[in-house]
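Table S2 (text version). Query chain:
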Amino acid sequence: MRKVILPSLTSEQVEYLIFQAENIRDKAIISLLADSGSRLNELINIKPDHIDFDTQTIIIWGKGAKQRKAPFTSRTKDLILEYLRVGKINTGSQHVCVNIWGMRRRGIQIMLYRLEKKTGLPCSPHTFRRTFASNLHRAGLDIEHIMRLGGWESLDMVLRYTRSVKFEESLRLYKEIER
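Corresponding structure-token output:
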């Protein structure tokens, strides 16, 4: 099996994507994806009462109907609050389960695809999941804590998601020795 180093974004690239997003809803989605490491299915199932602004956590339902809490930053808190203040949640038909975003899965995928085309940066939900793990690792957080925060059941997945960071770190050390 091939082990490709999959892309993740730096904090600066996430900020750029948020800046380039078309509206407050899209900015909040991108920020939350990068902060929480949420999967797309978890993101589309978020309801307003799942968000705890005091603890800056969100209750999400992960794979296998497992509930967990995911963290988010003050920036995301402000963006979500602004979206809730000005946004209109589109309830659509009765057949659609309403989420906080008023969007279906495909709508979020299309929004991210358009942003990727506009910026040239990878914007899939899983890129943001890798970004979550990689940026926490760059900041010095232990992989066991990253595993718990991201809802992974094994350290192997966290190591797989942070492979690019390990290489960057090794390359930096190599260049220091080269001097």
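Notes on Table S2: Strands lie at 51-52, 57-62, 66-71. Residues 48 and 163 are 35 Å apart (CA to CA).
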